[in-house]
Amino acid sequence: MILEKQIWVWADYRNYFHSRVTLQILARASVLAKKNNAVVCAVVFGDRVDAYAGEYIAHGAQKVYVIDDPALKVYNVESYAFLLSTLARQYAPQILLIGATRFGQEIAPRVAKQLDTGLTADCIDLDMDDTGRLVQVAPSFGGNLIAKIITPHTRPQMATVRPGTFQELPHDDDATGEKIRRPLPENMPKPRVRCLKSELQQARVRKIETADIVITGGRGMGSKGKFKKLLDLAYLLNAEVGATRPVVYADWISQEALVGQAGKHIRPKVLFSFGISGAIQHTAALADARFIVAVNKNPNATMMKLADVALVADANQVCSGIIRALKDRIRN
Ligand SMILES: Cc1cc2nc3c(=O)[nH]c(=O)nc-3n(C[C@H](O)[C@H](O)[C@H](O)COP(=O)(O)OP(=O)(O)OC[C@H]3O[C@@H](n4cnc5c(N)ncnc54)[C@H](O)[C@@H]3O)c2cc1C
Q1: Cross-sheet strand order for the sheet of 95-99
Q2: How far is the CA of 214 from the centre of ligand 1 (A)?
Q3: Domains in the chain, please, with CATH?
Q4: pLDDT of res. 235
């Protein structure tokens, strides 16, 4: 047991150049640590993960707990949850933060259960109250309320945070920190699930949370075929494509593109919104968009009221029109 207060950020380094969520949470942890005189620590498991440990130090971690072993080459939720809760029992962090990536969403509840503590999922903000307790801000009751949740009795205070919620600190080459290498525990259980094969998904939408231009489409696009026009437009504008929940449920685009309470938080310089009504569960993730252009048949749609430019028109026609105009410009 150590006496200093520690804030832990569990490091999900898969798709590192596309998913910066660990760095984003480290940035917020640094702010919280200053308020509470705590030490920011990253925790990374894997095979040859030393380079990542250095990167986390350059982005705000003062300590990095590393378990580096060939047995951890392939992510396995059972093993990783066991390792994280074993280390947390040993070092007793006050706070444990995890990115709400697919893997983070799997591991966090398991670790919370093993540590017999609470967990707030999908936080959209984190703060510290006057007594040093973590204030976990998350949408609740279907997104109709924003709840501030504290964990008064058990430790660590655990939360998952959606990618894109916070902005990472600039890389600091001169930053120094301590790497604490730990061996695989001898009592590590053999995982019951074996990964036979894994391959990278070649989707265009992986960078949506950091893209400067995002094009989002909703049910108003009409069909899967018409929705595809947004991908053409995105290609011409070097933009990324996001979507509302009905669109993802209808399989017009993959889950990775979901923007909103249950998906990604985005912060583009320009957001184009086509055929989207503007339900709170969607718009909660748009607060950091700098300039919004909305196209909707209904002038009274909430999305139109949020927009800097609101175009009352058919979303398909506008999309096709912009594509034609851009192609003409390229040709000329
Ligand atoms: C717990 C919970 C979590 C949720 N999480 C999310 C989330 O993360 N993300 C999310 O997006 N939703 C989420 N939802 C769903 C959310 O409440 C809305 O149902 C959803 O965002 C609506 O999607 P939409 O705007 O595409 O569809 P609709 O609400 O059906 O709106 C379609 C819009 O298109 C317009 N339109 C129709 N035809 C045209 C046309 N030809 N041209 C132009 N405009 C047209 C209409 O006027 C309308 O405004 C969640 C709901 C719950 C209960």
Answers
A1: 119-123, 157-161, 95-99, 6-10, 39-46, 63-68, 178-181
A2: 17
A3: 6-181 (3.40.50.620), 204-331 (3.40.50.1220)
A4: 84
Contact 208, 264 (CB under 8 A): yes
Distance CA 304, CA 324 (A): 24
Residue of 261, 311, 319 to mutate, ligand 1, most atoms within 8 A of C-beta: 261
In the reported structure, the alpha carbon of residue 161 is separated from the centroid of ligand 1 by a whole-number distance in angstroms of: 23
22-64: pLDDT as tens digits: 999 999 999 999 999 999 999 999 998 888 899 999 999 999 9
> 237 vs 144, which has greater pLDDT?
237
Cα separation of 226 and 323, whole Å? 13
Q: Is the pTM of this model over 0.85?
A: no
Q: In which residue are the tokens 């933060």 written?
A: 97
- Say which amino acid occupies 105: Q
The vertex-212 CA angle with 248 and 271, nearest 5°, equals 55
pLDDT tens digits, one per residue of 185-226: 999 998 898 888 876 555 444 589 889 999 999 999 999 999
Report the candidate in 127, 130, 149, 128 with the shortest Cα–Cα distance to residue 138.
149
Bridge partner list, 68: 46
281 lines ligand 1 (CB under 6 A): yes
pLDDT in tens, 238-293: 899 999 999 999 999 998 899 998 899 999 999 999 999 999 999 999 999 999 99
Cα 283 to ligand 1 centroid, rounded to whole Å? 10
Cis peptide before 93 (omega within 30 of 0): no
Q: How far apart are CA 9 and CA 95, in angstroms?
A: 8
CA of 259, closest atom in ligand 1: 9
Say which amino acid occupies 139: P
